[in-house]
Each structure stands twice: as structure tokens, then as C-alpha cells.
């Protein structure tokens, strides 16, 4: 458990230490055995994330060979903006999955939040206030999920399956009752519409938002006690409870974070597409969970990082954009996503088996 | 691996369930009885208050709508009882429907197409079973993957086209009724399958072994059950039955499309959980599942007749699902609290906690539960 829990520490260290050639890894390892075990785990996690990166690079290179214009500035910006919504959702999902739960309602939450933001903006609410309200709507949905899961102690898969329906129903009921089935770009204030095209040093603002979310959540999970406790809960809920971790409160908080980030994603969706109806984000939950799983977040909790999930989101988005360029039918996209999920869990399984064997061998030799 | 899923199991139910088999049997029955009672109550109220609900025509529509859900719920219930899950059933429906359309389009007769589709379903189920039992991967993750994979392949096969020129004789048979009763013909073979599944689950050693696996996979293995092989074949059967659902779906709507039955897995699982089957395995019965599916179907049907917008139906479906899992949890906690107070006698049910300070609340909490078991 301790090795699994400490894994994300490793992901961040080599990332800053420029892993390719520097090889500063063996510095601490030779003397201390637990240190070497941990280093082994770190290396595996790095291998895992470099693997996604390699797949991503391979895909991009293949696509560029097929169509050199794939790497044009505008195309890259479009790709990053598309990936950023999925990335924000995947970051929230990671926090929940790490605690051995799952949040299937994020697609519906995104839709409700996007519609709420749009409605407020049409009614003349100032942009910052509407953005905050969108996030708050998401956080409320997350609170609802969290209360049912943590207080009533009901499996999250079932609860969020229920709220997936319920929140979507609320969304479409609101849309049909308010007499505004669709919010069009013409109805939205120009200040809000400018967000989609805004750039800082050529980088789209929406992408920067996603990066900020990933770094913030990743830092919290890695360096804060409450973040570490989430890994403990996911590794073994009973042991976590016995060691004094407030499991219910932490799980509740994880759902609120996931909901709030889905709300933020809803605002980003509204800013990007500017045409909103009650179907926004339908079916997204599949791609969000897929992004996390492909990124190495174990579906039964206790291991994985937001950075991996973000890479997974980027990879899934790139596949969608690359298929037509490679001359393949875009209908292959969903099949590719499915195959990728299967490949990722098989890879994770074999990596963890090999790791367990190596650690066991090491202990035997040591004793 | 399966042990991983258990820690969150309802705390209040396990201790009550262990000691005597008699009380365990009654507990198993009580979930069924509650949901069946709710269904009967709802049907009576709806028949009296909703205009046209009890008509033969409407009954036919209602049954046609739940046929595929009940059909797929049969093997999926067995899968969930063992503590696994299969989220890919609706995608299997979609892929077999797409393949059926494509094969028919390319000129094969339906008599050849249908067995081929069933074979395809068996293969799709075997893929799930292989990943879960041979590679030891969590079925939740595997079938999320195949959910996307199979649906994607359906689109690869048929794209956004639709094949609709199936022979009239087949498509009218799919929606025809028995005589003038409005009850669809397909209900007869479906009932046969329901009975078959019910017997297998509740009256054979195989069925008992499924519950054993769901309660403790290790214990089941030690008692000589080949857990891996049983689960593998359960996934294969689920694939075949889902393909059958795809064939029927195609004939019933007279149209093969890649997006057929999209999202149906949620409705099937909702029906199963509403019927009192535990998502962690080891608990639940087929009667409850049947009642759950019919309840969901008739609630939607009645609301539609009342001109309630489709949006509200989703809220109701989701709400019912959440209530269905929260209610037994709360009831179990109330029960365990009332049972914990007398402390001494573990033979709780008959022991009246008369000297206790709360005589009014305790029987109130306990008596209805017992009555439910006997109903």
C-alpha cells in the first residue's frame, strides 16, 4: 500500500529532473532498501506515463507523415482546446477513482452547468459571476453524489448512474420549461464569447485553465496530507478508517471536487461551443473514465496520477483528430478508444505483477 | 481481485444474514417481495387513475418496451450475483444489429444471418470472459473498454446507414399479439427463458454456486467450485442473449442501425438493482428483477400516458434507482440499531424487547420487515 500510495511522488520528480538523459535516479538508492523499492515503483510509473507519451508521439508523427498540415498552429490550438475540457473532467474523475469510487454523472453535470451558465449570461449576469455560478452548480451536483455515497454508504457506481439520469432530466426539464430549448451564440455577451479565442503568448486560455487545474490537483494529491489520505482510502478503506482517516469526509470532498470541475468543464464547454442545449456532454462519462484508465489510474483505487489522466485525455482527443488525417474512417474512433482501454488495463496488470515479483525477490535477498 | 470490491458492502446486512439459513432465505425473499408489492400497488393505482393504462393496446406497448430489457437482465442478473458486471451488453446489441443488417444487405437469408449473429454474440461474450477470468482483470474496467470497442465496431460495420428492408413476415411477427389480447407473441419464449433462468438460479447447484462466488470467491473456490470457468461461460451466455436481443430489436423496429439500443445497459442495470440484487454480488432474486423491470417500464408508460414530458421520466428513473439502493441501506441500519440495543439475545426476531425503553419504535421497525417476508 505504501509503495502504491507514494507512486505519484515519483511521477513529478523525474518530470522536473528531465528524465531522458540525465539519469539522476540512482543517487539515493544504493544504500537504503526501502528507498530502492520506492525508486523501482517510481521508475515503473514513469515508464507507464512515458508509454502514453510515446504512443502520443507515434500517433502524431504518423499523422504528420500522412498530412504535414496536421501540425499547423491553428490545428494544434484546436486540438488543445478540445483536449482541455476532457482533461478538466478527467482530473476530477481521477480524484474520485483514487478513493475507489467512480463518478458517472459528470457528463450530465457538465450539461446542467453549461446550460445554467448560458441562461445566466443571457439574462445579463456579469461574466465572472456566471462562471462562478456554473462551477457552483457542478459543486452542488457533486455534493449530492457525495452525500448519498458517503452518508448512506451506497456504492458510487449505482448512485452516480442514478444521478446521471436525474441531472440530465433536470437539465432538459429546465430547458423545456424555460421556453429556451437552445441558447445561441447571438444571445451570449461578447465578453464571454471572447474567451474561446483568447490566447496568452499564442496558447489558448482554455488550455491554460486545464493546465492550471491539473497542476493544482496534482500538487494537492502529491504534497498535502488530505491528498495522500485519498490514496490510503483507495488502497484499503478499512485500514484507512482504522488509522484515523475521516473516510466519509474525504470521499465527500472528492465528489465535490469532481462535481466542481465538471461544472468548470461546463463553463468551458459553453465558452467554446456557444450553442447550448440540454444534450451538452451526453455520453462524456465514458471518455472521461477512459482517459483516466488509459492514463494509468487504477479503476479500484489507490494508484494513479492526474498527470497520467491528463495525458490520457490528450491521447484520446488526438486519436479523434488524427483518424481522418490518416485516411481512416472516423467511425473507428470509439473502437480505438475501447481497444486502448483494454490495452491499458492489461499493461497495468502485467506491470503490477512484475513489480510485486521484483519487490518480493528483493525482500528475500535482503533477509 | 473480487475481494477488492467488498469492503464497502453494506455494514448492517452482513451480520444479520450470516447465522441461520432460514433467516437468510427470508432476507433473500424479502427484497423480491418489497419490489413486487410496490409493482402490484403501482399497477392497481395506475389502472384506476391513468386513463387507458389498463387497455389491451397499452399493455401490448408496455410489454414490447420491456421485452429486451427483461431478456438481457436474465443473464446479467447471474453475472451480477457472482460479483462481476457486464456493461457491454447494449453495445453487443448494437454490434449484432449492425452485423445482421450488413449480412442481410449483402444477400444472405435471415435463416443464416441469425445463427451467425448469435455466434458473434458468443464470441463477444467470450472476449469479456477471457479478459476477466484468464487475465484476472476487473470486469468493470474490461466491459467499459468493450462497451466502447463493440459500439465502435458497430459503427465501423454499418456507419451511419440504416438497413430497413427486412421481410414483412418477420417484422410483423416481432410486434404481433396473441389473438386479440394485445400481449405480444414474443412474451411466450421470453417467459420460457425467465423460467429456465429462475430454475437455474434458485433450484440448482449451479445457482447456489453463483451466490457462493458472490459472497466469497475464495470460499467458493475452496469448496470445489471452478469459479473461473463458471464466470467465463456466464459472460458467453450474456453475449449470446444480448445478440438475441439485438436480433429482436432489429426486427421489432424494422431497422438495423449502429446506434441501436445505445444506453440500454443503464436501463437493464437499473432494473436489476431496483429488483434488489446487490451490486457487490451474492444477494438478490430473479422475481425481484422481473418486478424491477416491469416497474420501471410501467412507471414510464403511465407517465407518458399522463403526458409527462420525457425529461421527467429520466428524473424518475434515476430517482427510483437511488431510492432503491438507499432505502434497504437505511432500513438495514435502523434494523441493526434496534437489534443491537437488547444486546443479550442473538435470537432476535421472536424476542420482543419489551423491557427496552423504546417499545413503540422497535416493533414498528421490525414488524413490517417480517411481514414483507411472508407476503
Notes on the protein architecture:
The complex is a heterodimer of chains A (about 375) and B (about 375). By secondary structure, chain A is mainly α. Chain A has a single domain, classed as ABC transporter involved in vitamin B12 uptake, BtuC (Orthogonal Bundle), CATH 1.10.3470. Chain A contains 15 helices and 2 strands. Chain A has a two-stranded antiparallel sheet with strand order 1-2. The model of chain A is unreliable at about 1-35 (pLDDT under 50). By secondary structure, chain B is mainly alpha-helical. A two-stranded antiparallel ribbon of chain B has the order 1-2. The relative contact order of chain B is 0.18. At the A-B interface, α7, α13 and α15 of A face α6, α12 and α14 of B. Chain B: InterPro entries: ABC_transp_permease.
Summarize the structure.
The complex is a heterodimer of chains A (367) and B (375). Chain A is 76% helix and 1% strand. With 367 residues, chain A is mainly α.
What attributes characterize this protein structure?
heterodimer, A: 367 residues, mainly alpha, ABC transporter involved in vitamin B12 uptake, BtuC, two-stranded antiparallel ribbon, globular, disordered N terminus, B: 375 residues, two-stranded antiparallel sheet, disordered C terminus
